[in-house]
Amino acid sequence: MMEITRREEFSAAHRLSSPDFSDEKNEALYGLCANPHYHGHNYVFEVTLRGPVDPRTGMTYNLADLKEIMRREVVEKVDHKNLNEDAADFMKNRIPTAENLAVSIWERIEAHIEGGLLHRVRLFENERNFVDYYGER
Ligand code: NI
């Protein structure tokens, strides 16, 4: 069993605010990410595929194809966008936390990866904070 990973990056703005909470509660919960005038992050994300090595190709999956899918389905949709406003469809109107962004990336990528190879989406919001999503299981 092999795991192979491709890393890509994009820059996007967001604001974290839940309609379930007051402004005060949102500020206490999300801190700087609750800034009503938005702010940016340089996001890095990794997609890991897990599967056997095909003896004919010596590869688990063609990383050039994975790169193309990640750029077309994610980077081109969110790079230099406002995740709350411009990318509301991509986010399915979920609060653009790192967790929800990882779920949205998973959904976009999964539709193009055959054979159940998609194993993990790792999203870095900055160098110190990152989340791992393994799908619904
Ligand atoms: Ni933020």
The level 1 CATH classification is Alpha Beta
| Number of DSSP E strands | 5
Bound ligands, named by name, code or SMILES: nickel (II) ion
What percentage of amino acids are in beta strands?
25-35%
**Radius of gyration, CA atoms, in whole angstroms:** 16 Å
Could you please describe the fold and organization of this structure?
It is built from four helices and five strands; from the N terminus they run E-H-E-H-E-H-H-E-E. The mean pLDDT is 96. It is elongated. The chain has one domain (2-13, 41-133): 6-pyruvoyl tetrahydropterin synthase/QueD (Tetrahydropterin Synthase, Chain A). It has a five-stranded mixed sheet. The protein is of the alpha+beta class. Bound molecules: nickel (II) ion (NI). Nickel (II) ion is lined by residues 14, 33, 39, 41.
